[in-house]
Structure formats: structure tokens, C-alpha cells
């Protein structure tokens, strides 16, 4: 039925980032609400950040609109303009193609949760603001490279 | 900047429903968060229901995924399966083409708020579960008709 049974949707951790970059995603987990409810046109995830955790490496999307609303605790939105404290009910939008890299970090001493919505597209490019890295996505999956398209270095990924 | 200044985004009432059908939308208002933040691929609205208000006439979408999360108060989700109480944090999904008409009603004595996300598409058809009515949308706007495409009757819209 349309109302989701949240108790049946697990919070899962893990990361698609290569090598040691995945370590930045420790203490972050998420519930894939949209998938659980049969949505396909956009993803909707409830993200839980333990103290010290980050939502992602700081990035922006070229093709996908992104929206967040904090639902519990305190998050710090970090973007090109600095740090912005976000409390429950606070919202932020990241239009596709806006080259303002962003992520949310939990700098508090209690868990924080936010809901994030992102369009599903057949292809996508994401740029990482603080690293020489981009990600391209197509039907074959994700591919992380340096910004010029060359492979990530051993120094970057620790392999 | 990405973080929205919610104090600058008005809650607006009103309805696109024709004639007396618009009366069903009294005591409902919404903040157009996605539009305010420059999103175009989906709409994100914070909807406020005063006691007795409804989110919409009970309906379903053929082309647009819909997602809701209650953020304050208590809403009653009414769909083909009956009534489902929704408290803050409760979520529901309505995949495009799922012919389960739904709306949220505030049966409590305090205001309720929910966030709703809906895909933006170039065309759309919506079906109303409790009325002989559908809506079609294209570049020229909305058009409400009977389910067979004929004009709504004077009895239906009170004109």
C-alpha cells in the first residue's frame, strides 16, 4: 500500500567511492524510501549521519536536480559559500548544472537525519569540488576518473 | 544560495479546480519550495492543511511519481484501501500509473503539514476517483473534463 512501513526498510551503509575514498562515508547510512515504494523517476532516501559523518564527498550534479530537508538533529551544509547550519524543517535545493559543490556534515554530538530527492536520469556527470575527480554514469554503471578522464592515481585511492 | 529562506516563501491558497469544486481546497495552502530554489525536474511543495482541509480531490497520476512525508501534525491518507493515519516522519509513495486514488485529509483539530514531491512532465493525465472527472495537461495548460472527454456539467461545477 502507499503508506510505507518504515520498520521494514533497512538503513544500509557502504559507498560506491573507489578505494580509500569510501572511508569518508563511514557512519553514514540510508533508507531507500522511493525504491521501496516503487518510484522510478526520482530517488528518495532518508539519510542518517552519526556524529562526524558526511553525506558524500562535496560534489554537484550536471543533469539531476537535488533537494534536501532536514528531519532530525542538526546538519551543516558546506558549499562554495561556506557553512550553513540546518535544523529540522530547513530545506536546500541544488539545481542540475549549478556548479556549487555541496555536502552535509554532522558536526553535532547526536545523530542527524535528512531526506534527499534526486532525479533519475539515464546518464549523469558529477564533479567533486575538493578532489581531482569526476563520476560519469550510464547504462553500464558508475565510472570514477580524474577530471580529464584519466584513471584515478594510486595516491588518490590508496591502491 | 542553496539553503532556502523559508520566511521569504509564502504559503498560497487557491485551486485550479473549476467552479464549485475549488471549494474543496479551502483551508489548504502550500509553499512552492522547489520553484523557489530553481528546481525544474520535479515540484516540491510544503502543504499546510488546517483542520478539516484536504490536499486535493482524490486522484491518481498516469505519468508522474508522487511522494509525501508528513512533517507536522496528523494527516489521514485516504485511498482505495481505506484510511491510514500518518504522523510526522511517515511517508507514502504513489507510483505513476498506479490506479489507487488518494488524498490527505486533516481530521485533527490542529494544523498539519506535509512535503510532497511530484515529477514535472510535459504532458499528464490525472483521474479523480470519486467524480466523473479527469484532467489532462499539456503545453497549453490544464483541462478538466468528464472521464469520456466531454465537458463537465453545470451540475458538477455549479455554473
Automatic annotation (TrEMBL), chains A, B:
* Keyword Metal-binding (UniProt): yes
For this UniProt entry, the molecular function terms from Gene Ontology, in alphabetical order, are: metal ion binding
Alphabetized InterPro entries for the sequence: Cupin_2 (IPR013096), GPI/OXD (IPR051610), RmlC-like_jellyroll (IPR014710), RmlC_Cupin_sf (IPR011051)
Tell me the ranges covered by the Cupin type-2 domain, including all copies: 46-117
Q: Which SUPFAM superfamilies match?
A: RmlC-like cupins
Which Pfam family name is an example for this entry?
Cupin_2
Which keywords has UniProt assigned to this entry? Metal-binding
Q: Write down the PANTHER family for this protein, in alphabetical order.
A: OXALATE-BINDING PROTEIN, SLL1358 PROTEIN
Q: What is this protein called?
A: Cupin domain protein
What species is this protein from? Roseovarius litorisediminis
Amino acid at each position: 500500500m502507499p503508506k510505507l512501513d518504515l520498520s521494514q526498510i533497512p538503513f544500509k551503509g557502504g559507498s560506491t567511492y573507489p578505494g580509500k575514498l569510501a572511508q569518508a562515508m563511514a557512519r553514514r547510512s540510508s533508507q531507500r524510501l522511493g525504491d521501496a515504494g516503487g518510484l522510478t523517476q526520482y530517488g528518495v532516501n532518508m539519510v542518517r549521519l552519526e556524529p562526524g559523518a558526511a553525506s558524500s564527498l562535496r560534489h554537484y550534479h550536471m543533469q539531476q536536480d537535488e533537494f534536501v530537508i532536514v528531519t532530525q538533529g542538526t546538519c551543516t551544509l558546506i558549499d562554495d559559500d561556506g557553512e550553513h547550519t540546518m535544523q529540522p524543517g530547513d530545506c536546500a535545493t541544488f539545481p542540475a548544472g549549478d556548479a556549487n559543490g555541496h555536502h552535509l556534515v554532522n558536526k553535532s554530538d547526536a545523530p542527524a537525519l535528512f531526506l534527499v530527492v534526486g532525479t533519475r536520469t539515464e546518464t549523469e556527470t558529477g564533479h567533486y569540488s575538493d578532489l581531482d575527480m569526476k563520476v560519469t554514469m550510464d547504462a553500464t554503471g558508475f565510472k570514477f576518473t580524474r577530471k580529464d578522464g584519466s584513471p584515478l592515481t594510486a595516491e588518490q585511492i590508496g591502491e
